[in-house]
Amino acid sequence: MRCAFVDESYSRDRYFVGAYVVRDDQLTIVKNAVRNALRYAEVFGIDAGAELHGYEIMSGKNAWSPLRGKTRAALSVYRRALAEIAAVPGARSFVEGVDIPRLNARYRYPQAPHQIALRLLLERLNEYASRVGDRVVVIADEVPDQQAHAMRMASYQSLTTGGYKPSKLSRIEFPITFGKSAESPGIQCADMIVYLYRRIDAREHLDDRAGRAARDLWTRAQPLRPSTRRWDP
Fold first, then answer.
1. Domain map (residue ranges) of the chain
2. pTM, rounded to two decimals
3. Which residues contact residue 72 at a Cβ distance below 8 angstroms, ignoring those fewer than 6 apart?
């Protein structure tokens, strides 16, 4: 069985949902990877009980306030965390997104961007599970109206996902579980990946310092063989 930990990252223009996927017998390894990353962050004054959150690390918010204004330190922490996350044997990452302005321009009554991105991600996870001959349990970060989300996603097994390549998601275990990131090292890993990819996407045509830093960080995630897509309606 595979466990897919899911989190989202979005801006006014783009909505991304990402997954960090490991075997269910590797959860202790994932927990230790996050613990090692936080242990490294303690050198910079971060409390060992902090959570890995990409936005908070880079902006010096909340538990990561000791990094405020210290870009090199923040990048160092992020780099180490990605290295730990990516070192879990066989772990994979997937990111699916949607261009919001294009979505709104094309459809008079568009579906919510989160709903679309999550559906695309589930389709991708289902394809991956079929390829490796396994099934996938999905554990997602808490979101508003999550019960409705869970019911909608479960309905795909009887109604299909629709769209260009409809799927009944036969390899996905339903219902989706929603949990607190503070209690899930795997969700924290997904957060680090999807937040970073959104930053890269936002600066894909820019050769500024922030863009180069994000792309440099992304190289640390390459052992995960990240699969990334953005739907531009």
1. 2-25+93-231
2. 0.92
3. none
Chain segment 124-141, per-residue pLDDT in tens: 999 999 999 999 999 998
CATH of range 2-25+93-231; options 3.40.50, 3.30.70, 2.40.160, 3.30.420: 3.30.420
What does R_g of the chain's alpha carbons equal in angstroms? 17
* pLDDT, tens only, 50-67: 999 999 999 999 999 999
- Is 211 buried (19+), middle (13-18) or exposed (0-12) by CB count in 10 A? middle
Between CA 151 and CA 79 the distance in angstroms is: 37
